[in-house]
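Thread: "does anyone have the structure for this chain?"

Original post by V.I.:
We have the sequence but no experimental structure in hand. Need at least a predicted one for the grant figures.
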Amino acid sequence: MKYYLIAGEASGDLHASNLMRALKNEDPEAEFRFFGGDLMLAVGGTLVKHYREMAFMGFIPVLLNLRTIFKNMDICKEDIRKYQPDVVILIDYPGFNLKIAKFVQTALHIPVHYYISPKIWAWKQYRIKAFRKYVDRMFCIFPFEPDFFSKLNYKVDYVGNPSVDSVEEFRKGYTETFNEFTTKHGLEGKPILALLSGSRRQEIKDNLPTMLEVAELYPEFQPVIAGAPGIEPDYYNQFIDQSTAQVIFGETYPLLQQSSLALVTSGTATLETALFRVPQVVCYYTPIGKIVSFVFRHFFHTKYISLVNLIADEEIVQELFGARFSKDAIASELDQLANNAEYRTQMLNGYDEIIHQLGDPGASSRTAHLIYKDLQS
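Reply from O.Q.:
Generated one for you, tokens below.
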């Protein structure tokens, strides 16, 4: 069968690539065409547009790039029309993907499946109307989502979490020791403080400078930055000229495996850090922080921003964003994790609980099986 997939950012590229491999196991004749990234391309098929040309974050960047966004949508719609796939599979990225879903359903009458639901449990619950109209089947990756969608009279499938799959797969084949890792990258023998400052330029610009300032307060650790896919090394160089930090690309999982502590922006990285059982501080800068905190408290439908806390439904990790984001606050929390064994153990016990809730690996294979079975029927 012919599959058309759309992923608009690095995490979507990762999860879509794993889904494609699983679809190949279900359907040896599978053909792929996609908007995505290098990981999807490595599985096979035709890359129409790279997510680097699509990832615009925030109101102003989106506004400034509206012409490009609309052009990408037009290219995507026409490409799907010409390709005539058996199914279109959307991976998160709702601002773009829901408009594609509407077109595919109303103009082409091709089945639409959604893998990794947009986070409407946090905000924009009105999008449920678009799901009901334009998405034939939704595959969710967080254990609280089926109950949430059930209350909105929308049936979904919980398939497990693909980050569990990715981490499990990595650990199966990873044998590198700490000394081997540090020697390979020219690092010292000191414990590592991992800095995961986001996957987009704006996130890195907003968060990394403060992370580096905090890291310099703890010379007993060596700060190592996880370089984001699609971001060139020169972009990081402007921030690390006066720092002892090093940037490592393409090895986020090995870095987490070898790290003692981490500073992490919100997103999939917070969950991945928890799966590696690395104590972390979630820190995310926003302009006009006090106003952002007010809006979050009064207009969002969730108490937390990090996946760790959302899954646990309690505060396992500190979320220093909005009005709470500051060098001093981050440093204070990092000090607790570095020097208070009881506090650190409490966080690790919280990690173990969410790992239990997420369940066994196999999200990609379960999703692929359901998609293929649905298409056959």
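V.I.: this helps a lot. The chain has two domains: 2-160+362-376, 171-358.
O.Q.: and The mean pLDDT is 90.
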